[in-house]
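**User:** Everyone, produce a chain:

**Assistant:**
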Amino acid sequence: MLSFATWPAIFVTPLPWLIRYWLKPASPPVTAALRVPFYQQLAHLYRPQKNTHTDDTRWLFFASMIWFLLVFSAMGPLWLGDPIRTPNIGRDLMIAVDISGSMEEDDLELRGQPATRLNVVKSVLNAFINRRTEDRIGLILFGSQAYLQAPLTFDRVTVSRFLSEAEIGIAGPQTAIGDAIGLALK
């Protein structure tokens, strides 16, 4: 469906014709711009060209088309499709992940191999994020300070990528879990 952002711009369409009607054309100068003493001898060499009406008509047509296109573009045409409904039956989930120095310990196992705490958290959360198809998910990373890495979104792929790119210590060496909880609530 075609819609216009600034539809009142249509009212400037008759502006060139109104200006032409109100403003009279400039009258030709009374005195010559250049005095030539032998003008009479040159006068017979001048043959006025035939002014074809089609040249004026073409110019008027192209000028009118350009004006209409300028007015049309000033109106801000928008092509609006059918509305897309987003699922609103899910929940809003903010995930806060600790990336402080304590997450570097490899005291856990992942698939039978020793792994750091952060790698285990990433593995568990990636599986969790992929199952939450109708929920909006956000990501907060915290260390000494809490940072909003991804706002609430339906884009699970981006949240998973941001989680996998998280590195230990980029938010500081301490654990400020209270700041992360406060940011998640905010």
Notes: The mean pLDDT is 85.
